UniProtKB/TrEMBL annotation:
<dbReference type="GO" id="GO:0020037">
    <property type="term" value="F:heme binding"/>
</dbReference>
<keyword id="KW-0408">Iron</keyword>
<keyword id="KW-1015">Disulfide bond</keyword>
<feature type="binding site">
    <location>
        <position position="201"/>
    </location>
    <ligand>
        <name>Ca(2+) 1</name>
    </ligand>
</feature>
<feature type="binding site">
    <location>
        <position position="183"/>
    </location>
    <ligand>
        <name>Ca(2+) 1</name>
    </ligand>
</feature>
<feature type="binding site">
    <location>
        <position position="186"/>
    </location>
    <ligand>
        <name>Ca(2+) 1</name>
    </ligand>
</feature>
<feature type="site" description="Transition state stabilizer">
    <location>
        <position position="178"/>
    </location>
</feature>
<dbReference type="Pfam" id="PF00141">
    <property type="entry name" value="peroxidase"/>
</dbReference>
<feature type="binding site">
    <location>
        <position position="192"/>
    </location>
    <ligand>
        <name>Ca(2+) 1</name>
    </ligand>
</feature>
<keyword id="KW-0376">Hydrogen peroxide</keyword>
<dbReference type="GO" id="GO:0046872">
    <property type="term" value="F:metal ion binding"/>
</dbReference>
<feature type="disulfide bond">
    <location>
        <begin position="184"/>
        <end position="189"/>
    </location>
</feature>
<protein>
    <recommendedName>
        <fullName>peroxidase</fullName>
        <ecNumber>1.11.1.7</ecNumber>
    </recommendedName>
</protein>
<keyword id="KW-0325">Glycoprotein</keyword>
<feature type="disulfide bond">
    <location>
        <begin position="312"/>
        <end position="343"/>
    </location>
</feature>
<feature type="disulfide bond">
    <location>
        <begin position="233"/>
        <end position="431"/>
    </location>
</feature>
<keyword id="KW-0732">Signal</keyword>
């Protein structure tokens, strides 16, 4: 990344795929939300401010991103009773492609546009270009206008279906983002994760908690009615991941199309490549570099953990083991107690972001810094490791900066090892099977 450039999903699963301050008395078992509300609001709501950890509800603890502080050092660290402003400004929009159903955001109503580039931290990320690999085989053949004539209704169909499904089950938004990450992590973004046969990626141990396949099936069936044998499953999945973030409050972004669907899907490859959430930061950095992604992308894409849930089985290896360091390090003790009660069974689920689990924002990063409420050990290590901690801080302090970087990183992820050549891949008529077997 060029240092002079402005700052523009894991880690989806595992690290692909994923809060607010509280003031807690050391002599009490109660959490009290930080008093950032107006005095009038505090007076009205004072009767419900204290929560026993037996009825712990993190969603009541609200602390917005403190984007008004230009420098990390300026941010109050010990006193959390300041009157913070709720920073819910949303990031970058490609207005010419923006579906107005997602909201009208004229420039005059987007104050971040006049401030994000004047922050003192736009050059905080170093140039990681020397560490990057470039396995983007057919990236230059992709285009936002690829289906402009052959299937102009494609994007509207995907957007409508995603909104319908997420409206019925908001957790599907995170599932679609995670599905996209799993796909791109193995043989690139070629919809190999969707193939449903014995020994496919879909049957791998790392894929057993994946969801959203029924969403993809419905979208593909509708697209095939309008444009038979035209739109690839890989392109549909990429668009669906974008729309999943938008449906929960993320920013709209243009997606380039032209990917083809792959022929090979191997469970063993998925099990050897896809992170399991127990890796070190070094392992994660090296894995992302193998995809042509850098440290900035690792942290930004991990921000997708701001929505969705994780199975308790993903944290059982350290949750009840007091000697499991560094897994229990850098975590709030009361949050740890809560997790030990919440996750008695590996089959249970717990929110990745305990504060705003259904809203795509930068609370994931705020959780790591202020509350030490990172669910996965890999999440907490992002803040404790000096190679990534400064990026976590930057994305926590300005939500629009997170949106810009997430947009850039998702674009790079969607371009990993894409198939675009005349003799590469196919356009499946059913995402679950190769055309030769359907």
């Amino acid at each position: 990344m060029n240092p002079s450039a402005s700052i523009s999903f894991l880690f989806l699963v595992v690290i692909l795929g994923t809060s607010h301050l509280v003031s807690a008395s050391s002599s009490s078992s109660y959490y009290e939300p930080a008093k950032y509300r107006s005095e009038e609001d505090q007076q009205v709501q004072s009767s419900s401010y204290s929560y026993s950890y037996d009825n712990y509800d993190p969603k009541e603890q609200k602390v917005p991103a403190a984007s008004k502080y230009k420098n990390y050092e300026d941010h109050p660290k010990d006193n959390h009773d300041d009157q913070y402003h709720d920073h819910k400004d949303r990031g970058d929009h490609d207005d010419q492609y923006h579906d107005k159903d997602h909201g009208d955001h004229d420039d005059q109503h987007e104050p971040w546009k006049s401030t994000v580039f004047s922050l003192t931290v736009p050059n905080v990320f170093p140039d990681n270009s020397q560490d990057k690999k470039k396995p983007y085989n057919g990236e230059d053949s992709l285009s936002a206008y690829y289906y402009y004539r052959s299937c102009p209704e494609f994007e509207s169909i995907v957007s409508k279906k995603v909104r319908e499904w997420v409206g019925k089950d908001v957790t599907l938004a995170a599932s679609l983002l995670r599905l996209h990450f799993h796909d791109c992590a193995v043989r690139g973004c070629d919809a190999s994760i969707l193939l449903n046969h014995e020994g496919s990626e879909r049957k791998a141990t790392t894929s057993k908690t994946l969801r959203g396949f029924e969403v993809m099936d419905e979208i593909k069936a509708e697209v095939e009615k309008k444009c038979p044998r035209t739109v690839s499953c890989a392109d549909i999945l990429t668009a669906a991941a974008r729309d999943a973030a938008v449906a929960t409050g993320g920013r709209y972004r243009t997606v380039d199309y032209g990917r083809k669907d792959g022929f090979i899907s191997n469970a063993e490859e998925a099990e050897s490549l896809v992170p399991m959430g127990r890796e070190s930061i070094t392992d994660l950095i090296e894995f992302f570099q193998s995809l042509g992604l850098d440290i900035d992308d690792l942290v930004a894409l991990s921000g997708a953990h701001t929505i969705g849930k994780s199975s308790c089985g993903a944290i059982h290896h350290w949750l009840y083991n007091k000697t499991a360091l560094p897994y229990q390090s850098n975590i709030d003790q009361k949050y740890l107690d809560y997790l030990q009660r919440k996750c008695r069974w590996a089959s249970d689920y717990v929110e990745l972001d305990p504060t705003t689990p259904n809203e795509f924002d930068n609370e994931y990063f705020i959780n790591l810094i202020y509350k030490k409420n990172g669910l996965l050990s890999t999440d907490r290590m992002l803040y404790s490791d000096p190679r990534t901690s400064y990026i976590v801080k930057t994305l926590a302090y300005d939500q629009s900066t997170f949106f810009l970087q997430f947009k850039k990183s998702m674009k790079k992820l969607g371009n990993v090892q894409v198939l675009t050549g005349p003799n590469e891949g196919e356009i499946r008529t059913n995402c679950n099977f190769l055309n030769s077997r359907y």
